[in-house]
Design goal:
Elements: H1 2-9, H2 12-26, H3 29-56, H4 61-84, H5 89-123
């Protein structure tokens, strides 16, 4: 359990572990990067929701992230339906999950930086 907590606090660790493991086994860096992104997204969601809750002093972070993921899925699914006449569920989930990775990575960096600045000013 403590390993999962550590990976949630520092989501770079699971990314590196998965990337190195898949690269050494399959020698395919592109596939390794994609799989590392997919695995790390879950840890990023947990970390960003905790940082959000800590920063804004509430318990709404995880629910907000899930709501945004559902809204994104609806928008992308609607666009797929307009363009192709049907929704490809696999591509929809993959697109939402990869967008979540990018968004959560930026949010993680932003909240961590803001938290460090707040801590520095609190200590002074």
């Amino acid at each position: 359990m403590s390993v999962l907590i550590m990976m949630s606090v520092v989501p770079v660790i699971p990314f590196i572990l998965v990337y190195v493991t898949v690269t050494l086994r399959k020698k395919d860096r592109k596939q390794a990067f994609r799989l590392a992104m997919d695995v790390t997204t879950l840890f990023l969601i947990i970390s960003v929701s905790a940082l959000f809750n800590n920063f804004f002093q509430n318990k709404f972070g995880l629910y907000l992230i899930l709501l945004l993921l559902l809204i994104t899925a609806g928008l992308i699914g609607g666009a797929q339906n307009r363009w192709k006449g049907q929704v490809d569920g696999k591509r929809l989930v993959r697109a939402v999950w990869r967008l979540a990775f990018v968004t959560m990575s930026i949010s993680y960096i932003l909240f961590t930086f803001i938290g460090l600045i707040q801590y520095i000013f609190k200590v002074m």
